[in-house]
Amino acid sequence: MNTQNNTILSFKDVNVFYGIIPALHGVSFEVKKGQIVTLVGANGAGKSTTLRAISGLVKPKSGEILFKGENIVGLPAHTIVRKRLCQAPEGRGIFLNLTVEENMDLGAWAAPDKSAYKANMEHGYQLFPRLKERRTQLAGTLSGGEQQMLAMARALMGQPELLLLDEPSLGLAPQIIEKIFEIITDINKTGMTIVLVEQNALQALQIAHYGIVLETGTIKTHGLAADLLKSDEIRKAYLGD
């Protein structure tokens, strides 16, 4: 892969272990500004570990993770968030005993431009009208789809330049999944760069620009998402054909 100026993230020969158990083996890839890059693969392939390494939640044993040219390996997660790299985690991670608006407010704590708070809140409500209707409602009373929307809206309150989404369709009904993917596409159209981890490989590749297939901690293949969708091997292994 090339290293032009529009590269926002470089993952270089990264190795991650959980104790003595290897999770990633020499993984390398790049993300260009404005892209949706999706990581697909089976459970245990290393998809979520990759995002956790980017976010500073796990520290690689070796390798570099460059965000806008700076190696962020070893930085604490809160410092990485301040650099405008935000994540909506698997399982949503919202505060169930706080209201929708209070959850979104917490997402803004590290935003660099505090004067844009109201505009960012309104933008979140434009993307997710259901959240505006429920802004004074406790997050724990929301449906699963609404909670996922809240997790994404909260991450956007940090004014990210790179948004990480970990399994946003997990546990949701098909019609809600379709809506979530539409919103991800809409967010990307604003210029937002997105790294998307998904078990729903078909829908992920349909909205992505580039795809990376992980298998037991290594990259099995990668390429333009449209090309991966046409691959017989990929379709049989990951798309249910």
How is the topology of this model organized?
Elements: E1 7-18, E2 21-32, E3 36-40, H1 47-55, E4 62-67, E5 70-71, H2 77-82, E6 85-88, H3 100-107, H4 117-127, H5 129-133, H6 144-156, E7 162-166, H7 174-189, E8 193-197, H8 201-207, E9 210-215, E10 218-224, H9 225-230, H10 232-238
Parallel strand pairs: 3-8, 3-9, 6-7, 7-8
Antiparallel strand pairs: 1-2, 1-4, 4-5, 9-10
What does this 3D model show about the protein?
It is a single chain. The chain is α/β, with parallel strands linked by helices and 241 residues long. The chain has a single domain (34-58, 76-238), classed as Rossmann fold (3-Layer(aba) Sandwich), CATH 3.40.50. The chain contains ten helices and ten strands. It has helices at residues 47-55, 77-82, 100-107, 117-127, 129-133, 144-156, 174-189, 201-207, 225-230, 232-238, and strands at residues 7-18, 21-32, 36-40, 62-67, 70-71, 85-88, 162-166, 193-197, 210-215, 218-224. The strands form two sheets. It has a six-stranded mixed β-sheet with strand order 6-7-8-3-9-10, sandwiched between helices. Helix 3 (100-107) packs parallel to helix 6 (144-156). It is globular. It starts with 6 loop residues before the first strand and ends with a helix. The model has no long low-confidence stretch (mean pLDDT 91).
